[in-house]
Structures are given as structure tokens and as C-alpha cells.
Write a sequence for this structure.
């Protein structure tokens, strides 16, 4: 099998050479044959539709028109010389102009004859005109007369490339040469039975037709096939990992529900679990009885009660003789977990230890020792947990909070802390849409807590324009009079940091005037403060010494002040949806009715309006994440940026959800029927390493 050919450096393609290869590499990142083949057109010019002269205007892209020639004339001298032709159809007149190739075109033009012209329409002095159209004689009855493609591919190019004759047309020529030369080597990667089931076209055909489609039908079939391939192999890789893991690693079996679990459940748990919490616990319980290592993602909105579920799973592990840990991405979060778990169980019941970067060496030594001798059963901490020095006697269950900040490698490090890797529960408070979860965490099982504890009053969200600022101040005073505390959050975005800081300073000034001492007290927290000052200000608010906390988004994670029941977000239109949702999650933690007020300028962009409307309309993080995905596209969703998985060439996780679900299901069925890929019909899947960017990998052959 000659797949090496696709790694041939691009300069060896006929018509390229060193100089052009250099610009192709620099400008488009095209360095080998595969790259060029995968430089897909970003649009196609429709040559199936004919326009009338009266329908054209300067806003249209390239169009084609059937016209009859009225007259032609060569005007001007030397380099102002041009060929002007007057043409018409039954709706009007148009002027055509050529500045080059005059002689050749002039010969073609015979007054009274009909032609197809193709170009970008314009107007000059109110007259329809077109410069440098492509032109060919019109033959009655023949849309197919043109040897040209009906859908002409248009490729991304740059000024630099154009100076090397590599405009769209130039690139098109190179692709044509490449296809001619390598078409035989474009081999099928998807098993025949799958192609048949989903009516997918052959891979070679697809590559040809995506560049040079005969019509929109073949284009669609080609695009569909290649998108499917992309999604299929992501899922294939994910599920293959998962299946292999199941073969490779045994899992600890938790078959006892013992004293720790039961005592906690019967005597310590201060509330009834929600049905969603019970369901997830059941899922985890089943997982941990199968003898296979669990890798599960737990998604749930802020406040949905993930921590309790995690804790009860840990108690189950402890009942079966294992140690457990929770790893959080920041010290603040680790601290918070520590506190909330300590508040649920006391030291008499079970010792809980906190290990972070700032744990003193002496304390650290004690913790290390207790972990090694098995005395300590619950450890909570940051990255400090995965250091090699931290050794457990028998680690059986690991909770990772806020997965997206940890890499897969770090997950794996935790596994290696025991001979049989511990079960892993990944928790995230940033709900992401199902299709994204499938792609990012496709090798994990997913549990969802989609229900808030009973009695929670949904946060009421209001959107105020700047003109209602006084009303907002009035509202703040009213809530403060009731004894509540208030967050006021300002955006601080890197690109406009200076302006933002000015807004923040101005905002603080206005607030101080509106809420003067001694009646009112304000905490101020922003990124320019030292950690110690920040902490001190935060503490004043936490203790209730101040009623207002003015802050930049530093409070996004980590603060839990149940008495704070109002969140005011300034310049709310500048925040992303998931950020707004996260911020809003800071309130609604106490018994009081909570509010979120979104302040915005009068003038909102289309998307800005949708974001604010969405926030007002719903508290549901999953719904919000879906809308976020539609608005921003998958690459920009919180927490997905660093993930190469989402670097898709063709498929779009927002718009191709159906295709993704189909691909996922298909791969699942394959592994269900043939987990080791032994059936002859699946052999194609065993033949090479698979990556989503090419099926049979052109990039990395292993
Ligand atoms: P999450 O981690 O999902 O944001 P937490 O686990 O921190 O949520 O729970 C938020 C708060 O709700 C905590 O104070 C917790 O004790 C409480 N809580 C959790 N589950 C329930 C429940 N079923 N009923 C009432 N309160 C609950
Ligand atoms: Mg939590």
C-alpha cells in the first residue's frame, strides 16, 4: 500500500517547485501532498443557474448570463487599450470590458450571436457591466455544453500567494494535477458494510468530487462522506481506547455496601438525594462491580449536588478497603471541596486531609506517611496529588474536578498510583452539549445530574439597559436593607485590559459615591491586587463585613457565600454565555430568592442580544451550552480550546450533530459485535493507525 506518496513534500508536485512550495507552506500550511488534497474549497460558484441582466447588481458574486452580442469595439491606445462589447438579453443591456487577451476574445465575438458570459457583475454610471468575463458561444439546449465545471471550486488564497500565480484558479490547477497523479492511491478506510449502510460514496470519489463536483448532488455526497469519515475516526479512536482499556486493565470490585456508606446515608446526610443523584450513584455502583476500571464523566450544573455523589462513591470505595482522593485544578477549589466535605463528615467519622502547594512540609510528611500506611482514606488536593512522592497504600477511587483543565496525561498518572488502576470520576460544572462531550470525552461514560435539589428557588435574571442604572441602584439598596450581600462584576478581557481597568476604576468610584461609608462597605477584588490583599478583601466579604463585592471575573471560581444573593454583571454583553452562567452560579446558594442583573449598553450585537435573552430565559446549563455552541462554534466553547480533537476540517459539531450521532452509534455497534475487530468485514479498521484527519493516516503512520 503506497500511502507514503501523500507525505511527499509539496515542491515535488508538478508546477510547484521550491519558491512556490515555500509560500504554500508559509501562507496555507501546505507542506505535503496530503495537505494540499485536504485544502478544500471554501465555496463553490454555481454555474448551474443563469441570471438575467436585470437581476444582476454589484452585490452578487460571480454569475452567468446568456446574452446576445450587439456590438464590439476596441478603444484606447497602448496600455489603455481595451475591448468593449455591448450585449443584451430580454431584460436589458450590459457592457463587457476586456483589458487583456483582447485579440483572442475579439475574434470570438460576432455580432448577433449568443454567448454565455461568466463573471462578477458591476455597474458603471448606472449601467450594468462586467469586466473580464469568461465567455463562450452559447449552444442551444446545452447547459452541459460547457466543458467547465458547473460548480467551480473557490480556494482560500492570499495576496502573497497570488503574486506567485496561486490564486484560487492556480490552486485549482495544482489540485487537479495532484488528483490525477495520486487518485489511485486514495484508498478506502471505512469498511464496506458501513459505506453501504450510510450510503456513503467511495473515498477516492469523495476526494475528487469535493474539489471538482459535477453538481450540487455529488458535492453533497462527497462532503457528507468526508465529514462522516472525520467523525467516525474520532469516535473509533475513543471507543477503541475504551475497549482496549477494558481488556487491558482490571477494575477493583466494590461489592460491599458497608458501614461508612450506610452510616453516612442514614445518619449524616442532611437532606434527601434528588432522583438524579440517586440515578448517578446507581450508575457508579454498577460500574464499580463489573471488574472493569470505571472512567466516568459527571456533568451537572453548579449547585446540582455533584460533591455529595462523589463523596458517597468514595465512601463505597472505603467500605471495600480502598483509599480515595479528589483532585481540583486550583487551591481555592481544593479548599472548597475540603470544607464542604468536612462539613458533611467529621473527623471522628473519617479523617480528611488537604494537600496543596502551600501545605507545609511538616504536615505534608504526615500526610505522605498516613497515605502509605493506609490510615488516611480521603485526600483532597491540587496537582500536588500526582507528584511521585505521593504514594497510596491502596488507591481505589479518584475524583477529578473540572476535567478540562487537566490533561489526559495527568489522568493517566493517577491511574498508575495503583497496580489495578483506580476508578475515575471526572466532574465538570461547565455543562457541555452532548455532541461535544461525545467528542471530547468519547472514551468516558457520561452521567448527568439534570435536576436541582428540591426547594431551590431559581435565580431570577433581569436584563437592564444602562438607562435603568438608577433603578438598579435602588434595587441594590433594597436588598442590602434586607441584609443581603451583592457581587458586582466587571469584565477584564486581555485585549482591552486598559479600557476595562478604567471602567472598573470608574465603576468603583460611582459605587463608592452611591454607597457611601459608613452605611455601606465595599470589598474590591481584581487581578492587580496581590494574592494576600485579594484574600483579605474576599474574607471581609465572606465574613459579612462588607455588603458589596466589586470584582473582575476572579470570583468566577471558588467563592461560596450563601448570603450573597445578588449578582450584577456590568457590560454583560461582553461576556460569553458560559461565563455568564458560571458567574450567575455564584448566587442562589442560600435560602433567599436570588437575582442576577445583566447590565448592558443600549446597542447590542445580534449575538449579544441572543446571549442576554438566553440568560433571562433559562437557568439550565445544558440548554445554555447548546446555544453557546450554535453561536460560537465548537472551537470556542469554554474548556475546549486546547483540545486538538476539535480541529475538524469539514465536520462542524454544531451543525453536523446528526452525522456525529450516526457515526458514534455505528462505531458502538461495531465494537459491540466485534470488540477485538476480528471479523473479516472489519479488517480495514485494523490495517493502520487511524486519525480523524484522514482515516488511514497520512500524517502519522505508526
Ligand atoms: P455542585 O458541586 O454540583 O456545584 P454541591 O455538591 O456543591 O454542588 O452542592 C451544592 C449545595 O447543595 C451544597 O450545599 C450541598 O450540600 C447541597 N445539596 C446537594 N444535594 C442536595 C440535595 N439533594 N438536597 C438539598 N441540598 C443538596
Ligand atoms: Mg461543587
Amino acid at each position: 500500500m503506497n500511502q507514503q506518496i501523500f507525505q511527499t513534500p509539496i515542491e515535488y508536485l508538478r508546477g510547484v517547485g521550491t519558491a512556490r512550495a515555500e509560500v504554500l507552506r508559509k501562507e496555507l500550511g501546505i507542506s505535503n501532498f496530503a495537505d494540499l488534497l485536504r485544502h478544500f474549497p471554501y465555496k463553490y460558484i454555481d454555474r448551474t443557474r443563469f441570471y438575467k441582466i436585470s437581476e444582476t447588481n454589484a452585490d452578487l458574486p460571480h454569475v452567468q448570463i446568456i446574452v446576445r452580442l450587439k456590438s464590439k469595439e476596441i478603444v484606447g491606445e497602448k496600455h489603455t487599450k481595451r475591448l468593449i462589447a455591448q450585449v443584451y438579453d430580454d431584460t436589458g443591456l450590459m457592457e463587457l470590458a476586456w483589458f487583456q487577451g483582447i485579440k483572442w476574445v475579439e475574434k470570438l465575438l460576432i455580432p448577433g450571436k449568443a454567448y454565455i458570459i461568466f463573471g462578477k457583475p458591476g455597474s458603471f454610471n448606472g449601467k450594468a457591466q462586467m469586466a473580464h468575463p469568461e465567455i463562450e458561444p452559447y449552444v442551444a439546449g446545452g447547459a452541459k455544453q460547457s466543458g467547465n465545471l458547473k460548480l467551480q471550486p473557490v480556494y482560500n488564497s492570499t495576496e502573497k500567494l497570488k503574486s506567485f500565480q496561486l490564486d484560487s484558479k492556480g490552486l485549482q490547477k495544482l489540485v487537479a494535477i495532484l488528483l490525477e497523479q495520486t487518485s489511485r492511491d486514495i484508498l478506502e478506510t471505512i469498511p464496506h458494510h458501513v459505506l453501504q449502510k450510510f450510503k456513503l460514496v467511495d473515498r477516492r470519489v469523495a476526494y475528487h468530487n469535493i474539489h471538482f463536483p459535477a453538481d450540487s448532488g455529488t458535492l453533497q455526497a462527497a462532503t457528507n462522506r468526508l465529514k462522516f469519515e472525520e467523525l467516525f475516526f474520532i469516535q473509533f479512536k475513543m471507543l477503541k481506547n475504551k475497549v482496549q482499556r477494558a481488556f487491558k486493565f482490571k477494575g477493583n470490585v466494590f461489592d460491599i455496601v458497608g458501614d461508612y456508606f450506610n452510616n453516612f446515608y442514614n445518619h449524616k446526610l442532611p437532606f434527601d438525594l434528588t432522583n438524579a443523584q440517586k440515578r448517578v450513584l446507581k450508575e457508579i455502583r454498577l460500574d464499580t462491580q463489573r471488574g472493569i476500571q470505571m472512567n466516568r464523566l459527571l456533568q451537572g450544573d453548579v449547585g446540582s449536588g455533584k460533591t455529595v455523589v462523589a463523596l458517597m462513591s468514595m465512601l463505597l470505595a472505603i467500605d471495600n478497603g480502598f483509599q480515595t482522593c479528589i483532585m481540583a485544578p486550583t487551591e481555592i477549589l481544593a479548599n472548597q471541596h475540603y470544607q464542604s466535605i468536612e462539613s458533611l463528615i467529621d473527623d471522628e467519622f473519617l479523617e480528611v486531609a488537604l494537600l496543596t502547594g502551600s501545605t507545609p512540609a511538616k504536615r505534608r510528611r504526615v500526610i505522605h506517611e498516613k497515605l502509605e500506611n493506609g490510615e488516611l482514606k480521603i485526600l483532597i488536593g491540587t496537582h500536588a496529588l500526582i507528584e511521585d512522592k505521593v504514594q497510596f497504600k491502596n488507591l481505589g477511587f479518584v475524583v477529578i474536578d473540572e476535567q478540562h483543565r487537566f490533561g489526559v496525561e495527568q489522568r493517566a498518572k493517577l491511574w498508575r498510583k495503583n497496580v489495578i488502576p483506580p476508578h475515575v470520576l471526572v466532574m465538570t460544572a461547565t455543562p457541555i452539549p452532548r455532541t461535544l462531550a461525545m467528542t471530547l470525552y468519547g472514551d468516558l461514560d457520561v452521567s448527568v445530574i439534570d435536576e436541582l435539589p428540591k426547594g431551590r428557588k431559581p435565580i431570577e435574571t433581569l436584563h437592564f439597559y444602562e438607562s435603568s442604572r438608577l433603578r438598579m441602584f435602588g434595587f441594590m439598596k433594597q436588598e442590602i436593607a434586607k441584609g443581603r450581600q451583592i457581587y458586582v462584576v466587571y469584565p477584564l478581557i486581555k485585549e482591552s485590559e486598559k479600557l476595562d481597568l478604567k471602567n472598573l476604576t470608574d465603576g468603583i468610584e460611582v459605587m463608592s459615591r452611591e454607597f457611601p461609608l459608613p452605611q455601606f462597605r465595599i470589598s474590591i477584588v481584581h487581578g492587580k491586587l496581590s494574592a494576600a490583599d485579594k484574600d483579605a478583601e474576599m474574607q471581609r466579604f465572606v465574613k459579612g463585613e462588607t455588603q458589596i463585592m466589586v470584582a473582575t471575573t476572579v470570583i468566577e471560581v471558588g467563592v461560596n457565600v450563601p448570603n450573597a444573593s445578588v449578582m450584577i454583571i456590568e457590560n454583560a454583553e461582553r461576556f460569553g454565555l458560559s461565563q455568564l452562567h458560571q458567574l450567575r452560579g455564584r448566587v442562589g446558594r442560600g435560602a433567599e430568592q436570588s437575582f442576577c442583573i445583566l447590565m448592558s449598553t443600549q446597542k447590542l450585537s445580534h449575538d449579544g442580544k441572543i446571549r442576554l435573552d438566553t440568560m433571562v430565559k433559562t437557568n439550565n446549563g445544558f440548554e445554555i451550552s447548546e446555544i453557546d455552541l450554535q453561536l460560537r462554534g465548537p472551537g470556542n466553547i469554554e474548556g475546549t480550546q486546547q483540545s486538538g480533537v476539535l480541529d475538524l476540517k469539514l465536520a462542524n459539531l454544531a451543525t453536523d450533530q446528526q452525522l456525529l450521532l450516526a457515526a458514534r452509534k455505528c462505531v458502538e455497534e461495531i465494537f459491540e459485535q466485534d470488540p477485538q475487530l476480528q471479523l473479516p468485514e472489519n479488517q480495514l479498521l485494523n490495517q493502520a493507525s487511524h486519525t480523524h484527519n484522514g482515516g488511514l493516516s497520512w500524517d502519522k503512520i505508526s
About this structure: Residues 216-248 form the longest helix (33 residues). The pocket of magnesium ion (ligand 2) is lined by residues 306-307 (CB under 6 Å). The two ends are 14 Å apart (CA to CA). Residues 689-702 have pLDDT under 50 and may be disordered.
